[in-house]
Design brief:
Length: 739
């Protein structure tokens, strides 16, 4: 196949242009030998080669082996007339030029010959010049014809190729006349748009274009003067010959390249348009999805952080121009992590979607609700005239969330904390407003959740401290900044250390020691508590094992667990595995939990506690009496120890006995629970506790929480601890105080 490059079209007619270097083979057919000999002399030119023969039969044999540029043919030959050879040439589709040379003066012989395809006729006797002219002329004409044939063959091949390319193109290819009507369409139109070629021919192209896009193409088509003269490219939607279920026409998006066809004389006058339309629907869809994904949250399909920031910046610019006000709300779902950890991510996601739907329904059209990630939502309220307006909406938001939300595992009551920042009062940039709304939201969380609050600049610095604390806490585990201290629980009656409570200490590299009272809640909120508890568990067990190796038998070891630990499914396994690994008896081990853990059994806390108790591990209720103190749960939960909260012990100064402690000791006796009094600081408190029947005490009066090394000392030689104690506290007298 001819390659359709430009040189294929260039006619190769060197021979015709008369370059004598081209070779021409000439056949002389004459029965007169003298003539056969003289012709080559007379007609000799560089490049001309002569063959000769005397009959038609011989001539045909030559022609069967050779192509000639020219045959000099005698009219009368021994076996037939020259006409016979002319017929043979026609029959065999030969393109040799023929000059008849004949003594025949009959004009009809000449005419007959010329009719049969001879190119010229030379009478005998011939003039040399005349013969030469005839030969030159015939050769030139033959060369021209040959070149033409070649060129038209190539054109045909090239046309075939181009037609093939056009007709089988995956693109829609068409031509329009100057009125914008189809003059050609390739078959692709059927597959792409569902129309037959024939129905579209002579129809205006514009009828295929969706009305919304028609304007864009109309200018280009109707005012050719506007065309830049070069090709143009537009994206359009073309109607398909099919309707969607809603009755609207289906469409595809194409990228259309139009090339105006101009008249030769005046290239400003357009006679038509050549167009190539490529189906880019797929790409469009992909682009739309990608851009949607780039700007929207996948779970709720709400705008994401990027889009929110964009809209907020725009709204700020507008508010600035018209001296207006706007509000940014930061909404955080309360205790969302608990839902997620307890019910699983699918339920968590369903909850977020439900909340998103309720928030959307509460807001007005011009407001932007976005999900920043996790359980954090933001709202842009662009039309706020007074802070009270934002307040009204915040109240609506809280109301909208409050009805129970149906999840697959039951109804769930969600609440949210809302922080509000106003432009221009609380910040001038999108970033600042969002951050300050976040700070305000955070204050709501601290003060009991499920409410809204405006940003207060005074809170900002505290907020910053908190962020720093969070970051440091993340590093604390890695940098090994935690340590366990141990505080003994003493039986006054037995004069013995009956337990050790492990208390966590954080040695902050800059701030020094930080109490767990400060950081445990933060650790819970940022989801670090699980790791911390695991570390405490491991450390406490390792310490007991280490003491045992050193020949010291430690008493029961208590560790503090947080409610969050019980929402992890594997807490029981983690504990038993750790005890086994360090070869500790479960009876040597106790966990301390607060009453609040038991208030809500969603995570199967009861079952987990039963498992722990069944394996021999003790369970103590910490800070007993401060929480809900529902006696019912003491029956339901397999508790082994009650720890009387320090606040009650503190009140034991003076002669007044505390009725709550009396009740607690009564409960402990009734349920056969062990009792430990916390925070015992004075002899007076110890005496009062003894009088109420409490034996085991923990507090500064006996020992402060101390490093493992100090604890080793009392464990190794408890007598020394008690002798030192004895000098301050008359233990024996206390022991005898029981009622
Ligand atoms: P808690 O479990 O009630 O621990 C007793 C707290 O009272 C400890 O404070 C202890 O140092 C302190 N204390 C002991 N005796 C006295 C006393 O005679 N007078 C006074 N005023 N205080 C006394 P600490 O170590 O600061 O711990 C505070 C709280 O942090 C603990 O309260 C506990 O709830 C929590 N916590 C401590 N360690 C851990 C831990 O490893 N994991 C978890 N989740 N929480 C822990
Ligand atoms: Ca405790
Ligand atoms: Ca306590």
């Amino acid at each position: 196949m001819v390659t359709p490059t430009e040189h294929a079209f260039r006619p190769q007619i060197q021979g015709a242009a008369g370059t004598e270097a081209a070779s021409f083979r000439i056949l002389i057919v004459d029965d007169d030998p003298s003539l056969r000999r003289t012709f080559p002399h007379v007609l000799a030119r560089p490049g001309r080669i002569f063959d000769e023969c005397g009959t038609i039969g011989e001539a045909i044999r030559c022609l069967e082996h050779e192509h000639y540029a020219l045959i000099l043919l005698d009219y009368r030959l021994p076996d037939a007339t020259g006409l016979a050879l002319l017929d043979w040439l026609v029959d065999h589709n030969r393109d040799e030029a023929v000059i008849i040379i004949s003594g025949e003066d009959a004009i009809d012989a000449a005419i007959g010959a010329l009719r049969r395809g001879a190119d010229d006729y030379v009478r005998k006797p011939y003039h040399v010049a005349q013969l030469q002219r005839a030969v030159d002329g015939a050769l030139h004409k033959g060369a021209l014809e040959k070149a033409n044939r070649l060129m038209s063959q190539r054109l045909k091949a090239s046309e075939r190729l181009h037609r093939y390319l056009v007709e089988s193109s995956p693109d829609l290819i068409f031509t329009l006349d100057s009125a914008g009507r189809f003059t050609y369409l390739n078959p692709r139109v059927k597959a792409l748009l569902g129309f037959d070629r024939s129905t579209l021919m002579r129809q205006p192209f514009a009828t295929l274009v969706l009305p919304e896009d028609r304007k864009r193409i109309d200018n280009l088509l109707s005012q050719p003067g506007n065309l830049p003269g070069e090709s143009f490219n537009v994206e359009l939607r073309l109607r398909r010959n099919r309707l969607k279920p809603d009755g609207e026409a289906e469409s595809i998006t194409v990228s259309l390249t139009g090339i105006p066809m101009n008249t030769q004389e005046d290239d400003r006058r357009m006679v038509g348009l050549y167009g190539v339309a490529r189906d880019i629907s797929e790409r469009k869809r992909a682009e739309e999805i990608i851009s949607f994904q780039a700007y929207h949250d996948q779970l709720t399909h709400l705008p994401n952080r990027v889009l929110f920031k964009d809209r907020l910046e725009l709204a700020i610019a507008q508010a600035q121009r018209r001296n207006g006000t706007l509000a940014v709300m930061f909404i955080d779902v309360d205790r969302f992590k608990l839902v997620n950890d307890t019910f699983g991510h699918a339920e968590g996601d369903a909850l977020l979607r439900a909340i998103a739907a309720r928030l959307s329904a509460t807001l007005r059209r011009g407001d932007t609700l976005a999900r920043l990630g996790g359980d954090e939502f933001t709202v842009l309220l662009p039309d706020i005239t007074r802070p009270e307006d934002a307040e009204v909406i915040a109240r609506k938001v809280l109301e909208a969330i409050s009805p129970p939300i149906g999840l697959s595992k039951g109804q769930f009551r969600a609440t949210v904390s809302v922080g509000i920042a106003l432009f221009p009062r609380d910040g001038g940039s999108a970033e600042e407003l969002t951050r300050h709304a976040d700070v305000a939201m955070y204050q709501v969380k601290r003060s009991g959740k499920n409410a809204y609050r405006f940003f207060d600049p005074d809170l900002n610095t505290r907020h910053r401290d908190r962020i720093a604390l969070e970051n440091d806490l993340r590093n604390a585990l890695v940098r090994n900044e935690f340590e366990l201290h141990y505080q003994p629980q003493v039986s006054v009656v037995q004069r013995r250390i009956v337990g050790l409570e492990a208390l966590l200490r954080w040695q902050h590299p800059v701030l020094g020691p930080i109490s767990p009272a400060t950081f445990v809640q933060v650790a819970e909120e940022v989801g670090l508590i699980g790791e911390i508890s695991a570390w405490v568990l491991e450390q406490a067990c390792a310490q007991v094992a280490e003491w045992r190796r050193a020949g010291i038998e430690a008493p029961r070891m208590s560790i503090n667990l947080s409610a969050h630990d019980f929402h992890r499914s594997n807490i029981v396994a983690s504990i038993t595995e750790c005890l086994e690994r360090h070869a500790l008896r479960p009876g040597q081990f106790e966990i301390e939990i607060t009453e609040s853990i038991m208030m809500n059994d969603t995570a199967g806390v009861t079952a987990k506690l039963h498992e722990l108790r069944a394996s021999g591990i003790s369970v103590a209720i910490d800070d007993f009496g401060t929480g809900y103190s529902a006696l019912a749960y003491l029956q339901k939960f397999p508790v082994s120890t009650l720890k009387i909260d320090r606040s009650f012990v503190r009140d034991l100064e003076g002669p007044m006995t505390n009725p709550i402690i009396a009740a607690i000791t009564g409960i402990a006796r009734g349920f056969e629970l062990e009792l430990v009094a916390e925070g015992v600081e004075s002899e007076e408190q110890a005496r009062a506790l003894r009088a109420l029947g409490c034996d085991v005490m923990q507090g500064y009066l006996f020992a402060r929480p101390s490093r493992a090394a100090d604890a080793s000392a009392w464990l190794q030689c408890p007598d020394r601890l008690f002798e030192a104690l004895e000098s301050r506290v008359p233990l024996e007298r206390l022991a005898g105080l029981a009622n």
